[in-house]
Structures are given as structure tokens and as C-alpha cells.
């Protein structure tokens, strides 16, 4: 089932989400929610979806990144590799490499806009999976960015909180004027 993705301004997007118990994770209701979130993310399409974005204040996000039709140099610059579908629950994020990397980023709850957002290059995430098992994720590059973006949602933050506001623009204008240009050129403009 496709769920409605709510937009910035809905109060639930600004609330820290509630933690799960293992029992709750294993419940049919949560397993169903995960499946619906997966369908909703794939349909959007997006590379991540956090429960607050479908109106549920819960520490749960789904992630999957299968880049298609993207130039190899763009993938390399972003350190973007395919990430299979998985679930993060009750995540705790630790920055491993503080070196900030800057790329355009979008959010399914800020439809039609994009901006440059600074993110740490590599992070560690301690969380539970959909079976309630402890998992440690070490991620860098684009995957690290996705994790930081989704975990922000679970704490009431949205990418616009971290953007370079001068770079905020419609996705249409990004495609028209800035797509494929080096970030240094974008910032100079
Ligand atoms: Zn988002």
C-alpha cells in the first residue's frame, strides 16, 4: 500500500520519534508498516523514508539506493554505491570522519526543492533491524549521507536545517542551471 508522504510544516516532522521495544518490532503491525514504507519509498521514488514522514512518530526508517542512469563520474564524486533494502530502528549515530562533504540533497517532505547540505563523510550507526537484532553499520559517502538524513528525521530535523540557504532552489532550476556542475562553481555563482 502506498502511504501519504507528509510535507514540511506538519508538526510530527519536528517531534523526536518514540523508541521501539523488540516485541513491538516483531508485531504484525510493525512488519506491515515496514512493507508499506518500502512500497511508498520505491514508488516516490526515494533512497530513504523515515516513519515521521508518513505521520508515525516512531524510530524507524527504510533505506535502499539502486542508482540507475547516473554517470560513473557523478557516482564516484559522491562515493555512491548500490545499497540493498534494509531497515534501521532506534538508531544511534556517531560521526567517524568529521570532514564535511557538500552536495545537493532533496527530501520527499520538501517536494520540488533541493539545496547544498553539509554532511560528515563517514558515520557509524548502532541500531536494530526488522528482526529486532542489534546491527552496526559503518558507512561513508552517499550511504553515510542517507543515514544522516533519515536519522535527522527521527530526531525532528529536516535537511533545510542544515542547508546552505543561498543554494536553496527548485529541482527544476537545479536541472536547468546547476546539474553536473562542480560544487565550487555553484557556490561561486
Ligand atoms: Zn527527508
Task: Please outline what is shown here.
This protein has 189 residues and is α+β, with helices and mostly antiparallel strands. It has helices at 22-26, 28-43, 72-77, 141-154, 171-178, 183-188, and strands at residues 48-50, 60-65, 83-105, 113-128, 134-140, 169-170. Bound molecules: zinc ion.
The radius of gyration over CA amounts to: 16 Å
What's the helical proportion of residues? Answer: 25-40%
- Which stretches of 5+ consecutive residues score pLDDT under 50? none
Q: Strand tally, please?
A: 6
Largest sheet: 6 strands, antiparallel
Strand content: 25-35%
Provide a count of the helices. 6
Written as H for each helix and E for each strand, in order along the chain, the element string is HHEEHEEEHEHH
Compute the average pLDDT. 96
Amino-to-carboxy terminus distance: 43 Å
Overall 3D form? globular
Structural class: alpha+beta
Bound molecules: zinc ion
Amino acid at each position: 500500500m502506498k502511504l501519504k508522504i507528509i510535507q514540511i510544516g506538519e508538526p510530527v516532522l519536528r517531534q523526536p520519534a518514540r523508541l521501539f521495544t523488540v516485541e513491538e518490532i516483531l508485531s504484525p503491525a510493525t512488519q506491515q508498516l515496514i512493507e508499506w514504507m518500502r512500497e511508498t519509498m520505491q514508488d516516490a521514488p526515494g533512497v530513504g523514508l523515515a516513519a515521521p514522514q508518513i505521520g508515525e512518530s516512531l524510530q524507524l526508517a527504510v533505506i535502499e539506493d539502486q542508482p540507475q542512469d547516473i554517470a560513473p563520474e557523478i557516482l564516484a564524486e559522491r562515493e555512491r554505491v548500490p545499497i540493498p533494502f534494509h531497515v534501521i530502528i532506534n538508531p544511534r549515530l556517531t560521526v567517524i570522519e568529521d570532514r564535511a562533504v557538500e552536495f545537493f540533497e532533496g527530501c520527499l517532505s520538501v517536494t520540488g526543492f533541493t539545496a547544498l547540505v553539509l554532511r560528515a563523510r563517514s558515520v557509524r550507526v548502532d541500531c536494530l533491524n526488522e528482526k529486532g537484532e542489534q546491527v552496526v553499520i559503518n558507512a561513508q559517502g552517499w550511504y553515510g549521507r542517507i543515514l544522516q538524513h533519515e536519522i535527522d528525521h527521527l530526531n525532528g530535523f529536516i535537511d533545510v536545517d542544515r542547508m546552505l540557504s543561498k543554494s536553496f532552489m527548485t529541482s527544476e532550476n537545479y536541472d536547468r542551471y546547476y546539474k553536473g556542475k562542480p560544487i565550487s562553481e555553484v557556490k561561486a555563482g
